[in-house]
Amino acid sequence: VPPPPATDESWTTRRLLAWMSDAFTKKGLDSPRLSAEIILAHVLGCQRLKLYTDVDRPASPLERESLRNLVSRALNHEPVQYLTGEAWFFGLPFLVDRRVLIPRPATETIVEHVLQHARAKAGGRHSGEGLLIADVCTGSGCIAIALMKNLPEARAAATDISGDALEVARTNAVRHDVAGRIDFLEGDLLAALDQHPSIGRRAALDYLVCNPPYIPDDEWDAVPPNVRNHEPHLALRGGADGMDYVKRLLTEGPAYLKPGGLLLIEVADSRAKPCRELAESIADLQNIQILSDIEALPRVIVASRAGA
Ligand code: GLN
């Protein structure tokens, strides 16, 4: 981090932004200007647009102090979402910190597909009435919460092996006013669902969705430092082939679904083909598809439980 600014008046918004984007660019961070704007707006407690309507505003000593701290964390590749404590997913803001994976745009594919499927079945808008959804490995709660916001009468169970993650998910559910429709369960993958009075009896779910840890060991070294050094490994690493959790979900998941219910699992794009082949080998699953994410990479395995 460059030396502390000399006098209050000299450190205007304009100069701070230039200083930060320059430091971020030199460090090779993604979107240096945008990150600078997000961090400064966070410290000043204003919208990003305000930075440009008030470029000559001098920062106070206290503001410069918090800024220095956040800038040094950013230069250490800490994701900007952890610095501000906020990430956006499906048009909604979520609290995030080092306890949870930062929601990715790729995961919105799962939410979109469930909503489309539910609406197609209802022949239009779907209130979600009667729908029961499980979001396994919920992390920040982003999938379950985005679904509950868009299906205002549906209910969900959200599970995670990390009690810390569930606290974040609960906070997010309260923030979005859907906590009353989500049961949070702590436990290992599908086993967590067995504690749920209706889901534990099996064949109860309309949708079983999961963004499990799926980075294969052979891709770990190539994971960028902002992810590798800051996000929870428990939420990222999926074993030698990245399919440890995917295999369990594909084999044990169908029993939890109603006949015709959908299973959606996010996978490593490099493993989409073997994941699909595995799904095709399971008698309980049919209508297997791979959905592409926003970057057109094969990302989500979808299958329905046979017997509808
Ligand atoms: N898509 C994430 C990444 O590569 C991985 C998420 C996951 O393992 N579920 O950063």
Main sheet overview:
7 strands, mixed
Helical content (DSSP H or I, runs of 4+):
25-40%
Q: How does the overall form come out from the CA principal axes?
A: elongated
CA radius of gyration: 22 Å
Count of separate DSSP helical elements = 12
Number of strands: 9
End-to-end separation in angstroms reads 61 Å
* Unreliable sequence segments: none
- Helix and strand run: HHHHHEEHEHEHEEHHHEHEE
The secondary-structure class comes to alpha/beta
Q: What small-molecule ligands were found?
A: glutamine
Percent of residues in β-strands: 15-25%
- Roughly what is the average pLDDT, rounded to an integer? 96
Overall description:
The structure is a single chain. α1 (13-26) packs across α2 (32-44), α2 packs antiparallel against α4 (61-75) and α6 (108-122) runs parallel beside α7. The protein has helices at residues 13-26, 32-44, 48-53, 61-75, 80-84, 108-122, 142-150, 163-175, 217-220, 225-228, 244-252, 272-280, and strands at residues 86-89, 92-95, 132-136, 155-160, 182-186, 205-210, 257-266, 285-292, 298-305. The longest helix is centred in the N-terminal third of the chain and has 15 residues, at 61-75. It is built from twelve helices and nine strands. It starts with 12 loop residues before the first helix and ends with a strand. The protein is α/β, with parallel strands linked by helices and 308 residues long. It binds glutamine. Glutamine (GLN) is lined by residues 104, 211, 213-215, 227, 236, 266. Glutamine (GLN) binds next to loops.
